[in-house]
Amino acid sequence: MLKHWARAVLVVGTVFAAAGGCQKAPDLTQAGGVGAPTHDRRPLIGVTSAYIPDGDYAKVYSSYTQAVKEAGGTPVILPVPEDDDLVGEYVRVLDGLLLTGGDDVPPEAYGEKPLALTKTLSPKRHRFEKALVEAWLPTHKPILGICRGLQQINVVCGGTLVQDIPTQVGTTVIHRDREGRGDAAHRVEIEPGTTLRSLLSSASAQVNSNHHQAVKDVGKNLRVSARSPDGVIEALEFTGGGFGLLVQWHPERITDAEHRKAIFGAFVRACEAGVFVH
Q1: Gap between the Cα atoms of 104 and 41, Å rounded
Q2: Tens-place pLDDT, residues 46-89
Q3: CATH entry 3.40.50.880 includes domain 5-274
Q4: What's the pTM value of the predicted model, to 2 decimals?
Q5: Which of 96, 214, 225, 265 is most deeply packed, by most CB within 10 A?
Q6: Where are the domains of the chain?
């Protein structure tokens, strides 16, 4: 947790001199064998943070940064600045982008009014991440979206969301436990011919689950790669060029270590492949 986002800006500043770009997509079929990077430096992975207005600080769960480090990347926590001046510099310097979970994407962003159960994230964070994703996607650098991160990217790409699964879809599958501890779990069916299917080498997977919203209409240049038994979209991936994987569950804290390493390992290798491509 960072008590003052300015401290995180200083951390980012220390790595600007080691800038590189991800312009080359690696072979993503090699899911195993996560080890130390073979290049002179580990790829820099931007990890978005939650902005807490009550106290004016940023927060990131250590499971995100630990999973990036475990896979061979250098996590760089991105604070939520007062304006978007840093967006261009982040896009230039970072080799990969991880959009983390959090509160709900504002329904106004996809043309709807909020339902009673919708709890939107801070406008400050939404504005910053929207600008960051919009600037990031044209570069085709690797991007990994987790839970709300999936939803944010889908909305930026023109998609819409189910605002509350229990009331709009049903309760045949429990996607979030009532206490909000993130203890829910269920299976997902993985589409054939997808990056996710290749990485996990399986037609299905048991995943943790802690969300009440989901993708409704899929955004441009995205395709569905997994669904839960009730039909809820559980994963998306980009259809053209580069590494772009979005999952509704939390692989950074899943109990299956091989599952976590497969997803984060492929993500970091994609970033590593572009570090010295100019």
Answers
A1: 35
A2: 999 999 888 888 999 999 999 999 999 999 999 998 888 899 99
A3: yes
A4: 0.85
A5: 96
A6: 5-274
